């Protein structure tokens, strides 16, 4: 086996491993971004815990097919970058979408989130979902308000009964 083939097989294995571990995989066309813009994007993705890579499309397609991800190849045309979200499945879409609002050269193509194929439009909708910790905080906040009101009510009843006894 020649050395070039071994290198390609190793790359396919690397991509496959990242795809298996990732909860969210978002593909974006990045052509036209300046070096400064790309550096800024990479920094924002890193801060969000997202890994950002550029691989040959043919190798990415091979890895996706090995994992049974059908339909991903339609997004892998032209210069495509891949963002892997390991902890928060919506983080790659959110960061890339926010960046694309101010940098029109970056275009979301689609991806796979928790095994489901997303096109560009669904990816943008996914980006609107707040991070997991924000959703949990909102949920806890919605529990807290009724409980606080109940506590105030019970306390008012207790104080009223105590004032009547005196």
Model description:
The chain has 166 residues and is an alpha+beta fold. The chain has two domains: 3-129, Alpha-Beta Plaits, CATH 3.30.70; 130-166. The protein has helices spanning 3-21, 35-47, 57-67, 91-102, 120-127, 132-165, and strands spanning 24-29, 50-54, 80-85, 107-113, 116-119. The chain has a five-stranded antiparallel beta sheet. A hairpin with a 2-residue loop joins strand 4 (107-113) and strand 5 (116-119). The chain is elongated, with a radius of gyration of 23 Å.
Rg, alpha carbons = 23 Å
Share in helix: 55-70%
Provide the CATH superfamily of the largest domain: Ribosomal protein L10, N-terminal RNA-binding domain
Read across the widest sheet, the strand sequence of neighbours is 2-3-1-4-5
Overall residue-averaged pLDDT value: 86
Structural class: alpha+beta
Give the number of helices. 6
Major β-sheet profile: 5 strands, antiparallel
Shape call: elongated
Low-confidence stretches: none
CATH architecture of the largest domain: 2-Layer Sandwich
Instruction: Spell the H/E element sequence.
Output: HEHEHEHEEHH
Keywords for this structure?
2 domains; Alpha-Beta Plaits; single chain; 5-stranded antiparallel β-sheet; 5 strands; 6 helices; 166 residues; elongated; alpha+beta
Helices and strands, with pairings:
Elements: H1 3-21, E1 24-29, H2 35-47, E2 50-54, H3 57-67, E3 80-85, H4 91-102, E4 107-113, E5 116-119, H5 120-127, H6 132-165
Summarize the structure.
The chain is α+β, with helices and mostly antiparallel strands. It folds into two domains: 3-129, Ribosomal protein L10, N-terminal RNA-binding domain (Alpha-Beta Plaits, 2-Layer Sandwich), CATH 3.30.70.1730; 130-166. Helix content is 58%, strand content 17%.
């Amino acid at each position: 086996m020649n050395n070039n083939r071994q290198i390609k097989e190793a790359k396919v294995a690397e991509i496959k491993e990242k795809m298996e571990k990732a909860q969210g995989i978002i593909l974006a066309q990045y052509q036209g971004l300046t070096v400064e813009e790309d550096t800024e994007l990479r920094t924002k993705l890193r801060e969000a815990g997202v890994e950002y890579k550029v691989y040959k499309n043919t190798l990415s397609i091979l890895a996706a097919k090995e994992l049974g991800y059908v339909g991903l190849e339609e997004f892998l045309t032209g210069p495509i970058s891949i963002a892997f979200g390991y902890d928060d499945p919506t983080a790659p879409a959110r960061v890339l979408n926010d960046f694309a609002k101010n940098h029109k050269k970056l275009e979301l193509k689609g991806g796979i989130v928790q095994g489901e194929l997303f096109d560009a439009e669904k990816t943008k909708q996914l980006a609107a979902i707040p991070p997991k910790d924000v959703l949990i905080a909102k949920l806890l906040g919605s529990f807290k308000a009724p409980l606080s009101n109940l506590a105030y009510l019970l306390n008012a009843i207790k104080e009223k009964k105590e004032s009547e006894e005196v």
